[in-house]
Amino acid sequence: MSLTLPHIETALASANVAYEIWPCDETLADTANFCAHYNVSVDNSVNAILVQDKYNAENYALCLVTAADRLDVNGTVRKKLGAKKASFASSEMTTDVTAMEIGGVTPVGLPQGIRIWIDAKIMALDYIILGGGNRTSKLKLDPAYFTDIAEAEIIENLSRQ
Fold first, then answer.
1. How far apart are CA 147 and CA 161, in angstroms?
2. Is 28 left (phi over 0), alpha (psi -120 to 50) or beta?
3. Which of 38, 52, 69, 130 is 20 to 30 Å apart from 31, CA to CA?
4. pLDDT at site 1
5. Dmax of the chain from CA atoms?
């Protein structure tokens, strides 16, 4: 039995990059708790955050930043969305759009058509730790994975410290 969702495992297996699927205690799935308990650096832990145009809920993107950084929602993200105002999507919207659990959202195996914006500094890392689609798994992944995803775009200054 797989630790992650079947479509995520299929997406990983068809990629030409190294990956591991790790089990995670669901009570420790949130980034700070996970990093502290499993001794994972916040520099390698990546948060996947759905952000939307405040006035057009159909205009959204899944943004990836390290846990050491903060997503620049009101600067880079808002401008990239072409929005007057951008905000974090609600947990309900995030679950509806991604079909994944909060605390486990990952860009791997997303439904087609969802834009994925990756902070450029992530691409320089040897590996990243991401949600596994649920609260009971995490993915250790080579960031090169994103170079073969049509919806993925590497963006400078997507985050700030």
1. 25
2. alpha
3. 52
4. 59
5. 45
Q: How far is CA 16 from CA 23, 32, 135, 143, 145, in A?
A: 22, 30, 25, 11, 7
Q: Collapse the DSSP code of 40 into the 3-class scheme (helix H, G, I; strand E, B; otherwise coil) and give the result.
A: coil
The per-residue pLDDT for range 85-142, each reduced to its tens digit, is 999 999 999 999 999 999 999 999 999 999 999 999 999 999 999 999 999 999 999 9
| Stated pTM of the model | 0.95
| Angle, alpha carbons 149-45-91 (nearest 5°) | 75
Give the neighbor-by-neighbor strand order of the sheet with 128-131.
19-23, 137-141, 128-131
d(CA 121, CA 123): 5
Measure the CA–CA gap between 135 and 138, rounded to whole angstroms.
Answer: 8
Domain at 6-160: CATH architecture? Alpha-Beta Complex (3.90)
- pLDDT tens column, 82-99: 999 999 999 999 999 999
What are the helix (H) ranges across the chain?
6-14, 31-38, 78-81, 91-98
Bridge partner list, 160 = 70
C-alpha to C-alpha distance for 43 and 22, rounded to whole angstroms: 18
Q: Are 28 and 38 in contact (CB under 8 A)?
A: yes
